[in-house]
Amino acid sequence: MKWDGGGYAEWTEKKDAFISVVFSWQLDSAYQRAVWLRSSGYRVQAGGPAVALNPGAISDVAEVGGTVDALPHHNPDATFTTRGCIRHCPFCAVPIIEGDLVELTDWEPRPIVCDNNLLAASEAHFDRVIDRLKPLSGIDFNQGLDSRLLTKRHAERLTELNLSTVRLAWDNTAYEHQFITAYQVLRDAGIPARMIRVYVLMGFDDTPEDALYRLETIRGLGSWPNPMRYQPLDTKRRNDYVSPSWTDAHLKKYMRYWSRLAWFGHIPFSEYSA
Ligand code: SF4
Predict the structure, then answer these.
(1) What pLDDT, in 10s, does the model give residues 127-165?
(2) Phi, psi (rounded to 5 degrees) for 264
(3) 7 CB less than 6 Å from ligand 1?
């Protein structure tokens, strides 16, 4: 189960060409692809989160908008059962692009569930999702479950599935209590620590010490962190932004070590030199 293209998908259907762009730093190359496809005689349509946020970046060479479902072209094992989110985290594009949470009625049961905030859905919707995923293997709640909403009932229903990964997020130490409580709810329901992954946002409103505390706490619990370097929503170049509390060298070192624990985990972070 892999994500093709690292956030970029392109396909053709007869004389139509479709481009889906997830990250803003892919827009320049998407533009070049649209120019080439157009010159090859295709009618080009572009979409995806990066295009939704910056339609002017490509609108002179492609039609933007439309309702084409690009997800199967990024990953045929992925699905959404809801769109949008109830929250407005300042680092996240979802509320801008998708708005409030909407429960979908027409969705395909697939193992990689990409809902932005499944737990914000009604209990009836959550139950339908669990029931329809039950026949599948290797379920991965890929975008993370909201620690502030996770209940014992949610966790117990999750254990009815053939789970591969349950993901939480811990964006700042200010949310320690909510994160630890949710983590414990999952563990108490019988979900093993190795199955729980935790997104750790770095370089937004935190400090290196704050990030290190979260990363080492997660490791101490027996789970693996997924470090995520903050990227402004309109950035032209990946990893260009450095918040005032960090240096680029610090961010690179943290990302290199904490996203490669299989290689570096035997070396204490304090002794690791990038
Ligand atoms: S809860 Fe998740 S999806 Fe919702 S706004 Fe925050 S980061 Fe985005």
Answers:
(1) 999 999 999 999 999 999 999 999 999 999 999 999 999
(2) -100, -5
(3) no
* CB 94 near ligand 1, within 6 Å: yes
Q: Is the CB of 82 under 6 A from ligand 1?
A: no
If you take atom 3 of ligand 1, which residue's CA is the nearest one?
Answer: 116
Query: Can you tell me the mean pLDDT for 6-24?
Result: 91
DSSP 43: E
The three-state secondary structure class of 189 is coil
Contact call for residues 216 and 235 (beta carbons, < 8 A): no
Compute the distance from residue 146 Cα to the ligand 1 centre, in Å: 8
State if pTM tops 0.85. Answer: yes
Cα gap 17→1, rounded to integer Å: 25
Quote the pLDDT of residue 259: 95
Nearest C-alpha neighbor of 96 from the set 111, 116, 78: 116
